[in-house]
Amino acid sequence: MDKKISMRPFGQTPDGTGVSIYTLKNNNGVQVDITNYGGIIVRLLVPDRNGKLDDIVLGYNNLGDYIKESPYFGALIGRYGNRIANGEFSLDGQCYQLAKNNSPGNLPCHLHGGIKGFDKVVWEAEALLKDNIPGLKLRYLSADGEEGYPGNLDVTVYYWLTAENILRVEYQASTDQATPVNLTQHSYFNLKGEGNGDILDHLLYINADKFIPVNKGLIPTGESRTVKDTPFDFLLPTPIGKSIDQDDQQLRFGRGYDHTWVLNKENGQLALAARVEEPLSGRKLEVWTTEPGVQFYSGNGLNGYYIGKGGRIYDFRNGFCLETQHYPDSPNQSNFPTSILKKGDLYQTVTEFRFG
Q: Which of 147, 277, 278, 323 is flagged as catalytic?
């Protein structure tokens, strides 16, 4: 393989399926390690303002830990990223019941594709070099009825690492029957370096005048609400921790931020969704997407239980996620942009993580 791409074994699943890890590198020292188990970004090395490289994503060193227990560290999420109320939806006159694998506020829902979502399957993998840009092609065929969803869904995801320090993720899918699709990437970032404390001092900008309020089960109420005069206003770069502990009902529901923002952009247009800067290291992350929304999650479920790659404990709010996507519970919310992929149509979205 080209020196910009390498591959090595990463263990086996309990049924004996071999899993690999692929490393993409550019000439600036940026490196991303991706395994075809769950399409997980295992490691992401990015320089600080002095050129010092640090791994800025939370995760594990070995496959066994990902299989045993993971809060979706670095994974590809599907068929449906985020929540579906009560694990059910109706489509073309038929009701579909999905697994209820999450119950915030004691209200059961379907989360991130179910018991065995795309984060827990082994994808077909192919290393690529296109115009001297290293990439990884991942493909998975989700069978009709898998996790309760209708239709055979053929999914391809491309990861590309450019010379400009952009990690580009391209999602494609087609189906032989109408089905909800909402694919996303669930990396937990800490721009100080994974295991280096909380993310509350990171400065966050979100390009959104509105966010989507939720009920106590973290299911959208169906409205979108202005961020003005709320803790959800990140239209100017603001420390994540500035208002996170305010006595605000929405923050209480999520134990912090776990909400979707309605991006100031045309659906389908590749545009800036969010920017994060860590003052000490000088590292900057921009997230660009064609999706209509971004879910900002402030790592409220991290509680000292998970021990990460460097042997350090991942404590409360030690990482943040920016998951580009359609809105939660869209199959049940007729006023949201549709997340239904029909036979003959092609699902195509792009998200870029740009590092500086």
A: 323
Verify whether residue 323 is a known catalytic residue: yes
Residue 105, domain CATH: 2.70.98.10
- Set 112, 186, 202, 326: catalytic member: 186
Closest to 44 measured CA to CA, from 146, 189, 211: 189
Q: What is the pTM of this model?
A: 0.97
Distance separating alpha carbons of residues 319 and 198, to the nearest angstrom: 7
Residue 186 bears catalytic tag: yes
pLDDT tens for each residue of 235-256: 999 999 999 999 999 999 999 9
Q: How many domains does the chain have?
A: 1
Q: What pLDDT digit, counting tens, does each position of 69-112 carry?
A: 999 999 999 999 999 999 999 999 999 999 999 999 999 999 99
Query: Which residues does 131 contact at the CB level (< 8 Å), separation at least 6?
Result: none
Instruction: List, in order, residues 6 or more apart from 229 with CB less than 8 Å away.
Output: none
Enclosing domain of residue 268: 5-355
